Write the structure tokens for this entry.
Amino acid sequence: MNDKRASRLRKAGMLTVAGSLGVGLLLPGMTSAANDSAPVYRFQEDAKIVSGSGPVQPADPSGSAKREKEAKITKEQAIDRLRELFPDLKNAEVSSASLGESTDGYPPVPRLVWTLSWSVTKGNSTSSFHSVVDARTGDVWSTSFPGVWLKEEESFYPPAVNQEKAAQIALDLVKKAIPSLQNDTLEPFLSYGSQSALFGSVLYDFSFRRKVNGLFVDFEGINVQVRGDGRVTGLHASLHTSSYPSPTPKISEREAAAKYKKDFAVDLQYVKLQNGSGPKEWILGYVRNPLFYAPVDAQTGEYVFEGLYAAYGTSAYADVPKTGASFKAHTGAPLSAEQAEELVKATGYVPEGSKLAQKSEQEGWRTPGQLVWSLNWKDENGNDTHAIVDTRTGQILELSENGIYPPWNQNPTVKPRSIPIESADAKALQLFDELVPQASENWKLVKKNSAVKDNVSSKKNEPFTYQFQRVNKGIPIQDQQIILHLNGDGSLYTLQLPYEQEAIEEALKAVKPAAVTKEEALKRLQADGRVSLSYTMNGAFYTGGGDDKERKLLLVYRQGSEAESAWQVLDAASGKLRDLRPVPAAAKPSEGKDITGHWAQKELAELVRLQVLVPDADGNLNPDAVLTYGDWLTMFARGIRPDSY
């Protein structure tokens, strides 16, 4: 036993070396490549660029002759253009080509395009991908190569092209690929740096946004991927090519700032914070009202607000009354499929003449371990009616048509409004109490916000829409909403429960009480009064249906700095600002306080950038410390996969 232990110690001793010596071994070619390294690339303010759009649906063959007449670019010219821009395509074959109007939903601009499908065969495997080229202008909207195709030619550390050179390659490619918007300025939006791991392939990922009339366009973007050897492997552009409104507003900056200040409010809520895959934490926090993040139309002074009502403050909620038929949970053995079907039919949701086409018992995705019945009916026209029912309690968790919810599907089967809104309101409250456990105790009806113009509820052919908020001791619980839609005759259209349904009662009991007052929170979370102009598109998130006519480009004001634009919460117990993003952006790592002037400072800093080395709690690397066998294993593991999970 002692001999074995001594052997292991001798092995560890042989692998124990000075930390700085290990740096040289971990970074192949670092010294010779040092002159090629460069700081994060920043584009010049006056850089000129171009732009584009996204994927398309297959072409309709009925009007092919007319479309070919309208096309200024032939199929052959589109193929030649792509092969000129992307030399790697010389090894690919065009498997199909179709000409048609694009129906991409973001931004929703119809355009005539060539959709080219490519295939590459290596050995027994074939990879397929597609490109989209504007048939009128020749602009390339998108193309990308499958990673498996180029895998055997991947570029590893140190890259032949550093980040600054790669950024210039990306800019030059965009200029050549989309020449129709040469007079607009392109500015960097996001740069994802180089490879994710020291021993992984090198790939740079650049995102750009453009300025029109000197103003940012907030619903567009261009993304370009460049490999470490300088080859471009992807281009995706989503842009609007119509003319933009005048950049001259009718509402002054002062008036817009005053409107934001007048309407500013905060709401005390239970908030769940989660850092990546780490533990969840529930806190009481003050959040800014949604209007803080909504743009203001620079011509009318009205908020441009997409989605459901913006609710904040206790006055924004109404009680859910008890009815004589409040929800009663199923008891005894788990529900059979027939029992689940009868529960759904009892709501009047299943259209007459529909037949049950599919039923399956499966684990629900909302709650771990929850078993549900998934039921699907079809009518004679092939329309789907879908429901999910908890097998244990009998609660209906989801009702949807074709598996999606309004307003995105703009389903033509929605019955026009034939009852007054007061009758619909009463019907919605009754149904909610019948379908949701402890509805009156745990839920509130969200009132429509009078500060936001209601663009949905007044439409004759739109469903009546109701939003309900879960509360605990009268305090809203963030991300716990139920959406109920009614047909125009008051019948059920869809029901959508929270994305996650988890038992949170015990977690909420442990939440620390609020020590910060609402008045203090108002001061802490108020913006600094600055507003800026930009362009946005109203209705850009909707696709299809009658909503198209309402999509329009708008000149708008937005408030807040870059930091304030992130969704934050003020911890009501500690008074600290906390980040609300599901995975907070990683802070730029310190290079290490104790490596300045060290002979391997540059190499050490590079290993920190690649997350192979991580400074300790005091910000030190201890570069001359002796490394153990375990230290070496950790370094190599982080060289392969550096993420903290």
Summary: The chain has a mean pLDDT of 79. The two ends are 36 Å apart (CA to CA). Residues 163-177 form the longest helix (15 residues). Residues 266 and 289 are 5 Å apart (CA to CA).
